[in-house]
Amino acid sequence: MYYPSFNIGIEEEYQLIDPETRELLGYATQSMARERMVVNERAPDADLSDVIRAGTVSVGTPVCTDINDAREKLLRVREQMLELGVANGFKIAGAGTHPFSRWEGREEMVAQYRQMAEDAQMIARRILAFGLRIHIGVEDRDLAVDVMNTIRYLLPHIFCLSTSSPFWNGRNTGLKSYRAVLVDSLPRTGIPGAFASYHDYRTYVETLLRTNSIPDPR
Predict the structure, then answer these.
(1) Which of 64, 159, 202, 210 is least enclosed, having the fewest CB within 10 Å?
(2) String of DSSP letters for the chain
(3) Among 58-67, 96-105, 118-127, which is the least confidently predicted range?
(4) CATH number for the domain including 95?
(5) What is the domain extent for residue 193?
(6) Number of domains, the chain
């Protein structure tokens, strides 16, 4: 019987906070596809990018064999970020939004998000939100589609566990996750529909590509 590897990769975004004012100084984005962590700074003369790149912070976790391996690697990344913050005078926070800071900073976006900003313009540029991405390895494509269909049932439960953004622009939104509201305003986002097979999924993606609805399969 075939068993998928279910290997795991995790990426997190960290808010960099002024310890006195609690304002957002910038934020760091991990990506398994890049060699370095991308740092977006609020002030043009900030040196947070240089500080983090000069450190020894890993970029996300590597591909991990199981959840215990992923937990160990992720804790190390968090420890490194905290150590950098202590050494350089800023705090680290992890949440879906910042409670009150507005964003008019210098953007150093990865290509994927730069394209999103060009496509969606102000809709994308107003979204100051942070997240955690978990990648699960399922080598068999048809099984991957089955897993994707099945996990839809569990998404509300996972969502409840992940909420961390009740505040936005200094106000209590009345929601547990205002980040979800912000992200939902973007085109081509949300929970995918159910697919009968991997072939069904590929046909759908190819239709989107052929009609220029998406730039690439990602």
Answers:
(1) 210
(2) -------EEEEEEEEEE-TTT--EEEEEE--TTSSS-EEEESSTT--HHHHHHHTT--SS---BSSHHHHHHHHHHHHHHHHHHHHHHT-EEE--SS-SS-----B----HHHHHHHHHHTHHHHT-----EEEEE---SHHHHHHHHHHHTTTHHHHHHHH--B-EETTEE-SSSBHHHHHHHTSTT-SPPPP-SSHHHHHHHHHHHHHTTSSSS--
(3) 118-127
(4) 3.30.590.20
(5) 8-210
(6) 1
218 in a structural domain: no
Residue 35: is it exposed, middle or buried by C-beta count within 10 angstroms (0-12/13-18/19+)?
exposed
* Domain contains 104: yes
Tell me: the pLDDT tens digits for 24-76? 888 777 655 555 566 666 655 555 555 554 444 555 678 898 999 999 998 98
